[in-house]
Design brief:
The protein is an alpha+beta fold. It has a single domain, classed as Sufe protein. Chain: A. The chain is built from five helices and four strands, in the order ααβββαβαα. A four-stranded antiparallel sheet has the order 1-2-3-4, sandwiched between helices. A hairpin with an 8-residue loop joins β1 and β2. α3 packs parallel to α5. It starts with a helix and ends with a helix.
Amino acid sequence: MLYSPEEKRKIILSNYNHPNHQVKLEELKKKSEEWQIPFATFRSLEQGCGDIIHLLVKKEDNNLQKCLFSGQQSCLITVAVANIICSCLERKDLNFARELLTNCQAMIEKKVYNLDNCPDLQVFSDISQFPHRVECLRLVVRGLTKLIK
């Protein structure tokens, strides 16, 4: 699906301003204790970027039941990406999650990819044109990939 620049802007801003999968770090810690699942913290690998994202994934059998994050120390792109991906992954099986994250990585690397199962991620299809923003997407993909393995 192709989005106009205005549609992309609306989707990104909506996911940043109203992230339904983001919780405050204190709440993430409480959920982690309640579910007896450790959350993980990931930092940007870019020099000069201070983005930090905390991720909590609740798996049951072969499914992702909940996918939450805390990104109060992250930029607009990182928060929007995290919210979109968490929305797409929740209540999906692990194979779906692995495939989605693999396709996200392919998009970042300008390879062939398919994000039909999570069309809002298409708003980042041109992210490779903005090298200083690529790490925003990579940070979330790297973190979630590590957590679902």
